[in-house]
Amino acid sequence: MDKIKITFPDGKSREFDAGVTAMDILQQMPGRLRKESIAVKFNDQLLDLNKPLNEDGTLEFITITSAEGMDIFWHSSAHVMAHAIKNLYPEAKFAFGPPVENGFYYDVDLDKSLNPEDLQKIEAEMQSIVQADHPFERKSFSKQEAVELFKEKGETFKVEQIERLGEPPSVYREGDFYDLCRGPHVPSTKYIKYFKLLNIAGAYWLGDEKNPQLQRVYGIAFPKKSRLDDYLVRLEEAKQRDHRKLGKELDLFSINDQIGPGLVLWHPKGAFIRHQIESYWKERHLEGGYDFVHSPHIAKADLWNASGHLDFFGENMFSPMDVDEMQYIVKPMNCPFHLQIYKSVTKSYRDLPIRWAELGTVYRYERSGVLHGLLRVRGFTQDDAHIFCRPDQLNAEVVRVIRFSVSILEAFGFSDYDVFVSTRPENYVGTLENWQTATRALKEGLEECGIEYAIDPGEGVFYGPKIDIKIRDSIGRSWQCSTIQVDFNEPERFDLNFIGQDGEKHRPIMIHRALLGSLERFFGVLIEHYAGAFPLWLAPVQVAVLPITEHQYKYALQIHEKLLAQGIRSQLDDRSEKVGYKIRQASTLKIPYMFIVGPKEVEDKTLSVRRHKEGDLGTFQYAGIVEKIKKQVSSKQ
């Protein structure tokens, strides 16, 4: 029998008979690896453990504890859920059922509207399928055979998917359930022991509102019960932190259907926090060598055609409007305007680098089904900046902006993050050499800053590679935040240049950079990170002054006015309510400090101080507590 050579991650190689499966090889591996492996990567291709191997190659077992392993595990869980739904509702038709960041979902076409009680029935049926220990088996079909199979089963969405495919489809079977799927999967349904169906949402087939509306059933699964229990606790905590819920309770913002979905109204308290964010942002940028620019909200369609946005980003742009027999479009980006400012005056090599920043509001068409509070909107303000530099300055500018990004995020309380370098996508512009230079500059910049990163292959934007910084909040969730993009393309498209030492024209390099991403999204993340209890320097009201009775109103008013005069944001509650009620309400509004004023405080000229979440701090002289508050504000606490 022919032999094949298998090379393992440690560099060691062994020979096996051709046709050996990864499962056969796994039986010779250490116990923990045997227990945790659910798939294999062979020559960089993910495969099922039972796939025969017939050529030399590198082999790595994918464990259930890895990110790739959890994706496979959740994808298999989605199949089990769909199988259970089909058993309970034979008329159900299925669209897509992928793994997502935290779990999985399946889009289902069903006349019956599913409810929480139905989810419990589906979970019970899933448990039966898991206990049956059905193996996941990959079946090969011709395109026509697969069409006939799914037509017979009434799966019209699957038939449409197959007809879109340019290659023979891959079909998986577990028990009597067939599904169109690329795979791989866990070896059998018994691996999926601990799961929970979470909620039901609406979705459109292929994301198009003109297509049929489906029911999207979300679920989560883990290989250990303790992990499922921990996740459900965190999920409940996340519900309490939901920025849409807290935004209403704290009167921070609203989104009004009469104005339009995805368009944010900032209420006074929310607008004040935005003011604080913007003020700090501007202060740091001036210190960091940036100049501010401003640009209009609309521009002629020709600008967006020249920039390439109509070709590569057109589906996310609003339709043109006719003005004076010319077409204008509201801006989805700020960068073309900054390019035009650059072109307005001839630049010398001595002028570079140039760093321009703008809090520029942009507008993008997002489908109504994906809009989500402040996190996904149609109008938002980017904390945008563009750096124009010489090629010999690129590496230094990348390092500078990475360090700048990290220091600003830390000021807002984010010191835990994951960093990714997104590389060249399938559809791109520019030369391969420029892409390689830009990608290398980003990697080397992160390495010089001592920041670990992962590669996100093919996820760069059409004009260049990028760094994505995903911050982790106080309960461990990851949020896309800062992005740093190197762009050789736009300077080329707009014919930007500078006069070099040799007196000749040279092309600058452009770095796109947003630190907070957008003020709307960042504010939503801040709300959830702090559960609405903002740090003292951001809180719209820093101190609530609470007189116990009307006899203390005069002293309380004096304290309130002194606080305001010293730049401390104070709110006087002079209602004729019991002090316990006032304390509870100030606590509900998450006001950081409460100054309780009773007869003793008036007599001693002191204050009884409470801190949100900490309770009673004791009695203070006015000057002492004000000094404490000012120190906390100056240190961004």
List the helices and strands and how they pair.
Elements: E1 3-7, E2 13-17, E3 20-21, H1 22-26, H2 31-36, E4 37-42, E5 45-47, E6 52-53, E7 57-63, H3 67-88, E8 93-94, E9 99-100, E10 103-109, H4 116-132, E11 137-140, H5 143-152, H6 156-164, E12 170-174, E13 177-180, E14 194-204, E15 213-222, H7 225-241, H8 243-249, E16 253-255, E17 264-266, H9 268-287, E18 291-292, E19 298-300, H10 301-307, H11 309-312, E20 321-323, E21 326-330, H12 335-343, E22 354-363, E23 379-389, H13 394-411, E24 417-422, H14 432-448, E25 454-456, E26 466-472, E27 478-487, H15 489-493, E28 498-499, E29 505-506, E30 509-514, H16 519-529, E31 543-547, H17 553-565, E32 570-572, H18 579-588, E33 593-597, H19 599-604, E34 606-611, E35 615-621, H20 622-634
Helix pairs in contact: 3-4, 5-6, 8-16, 13-14
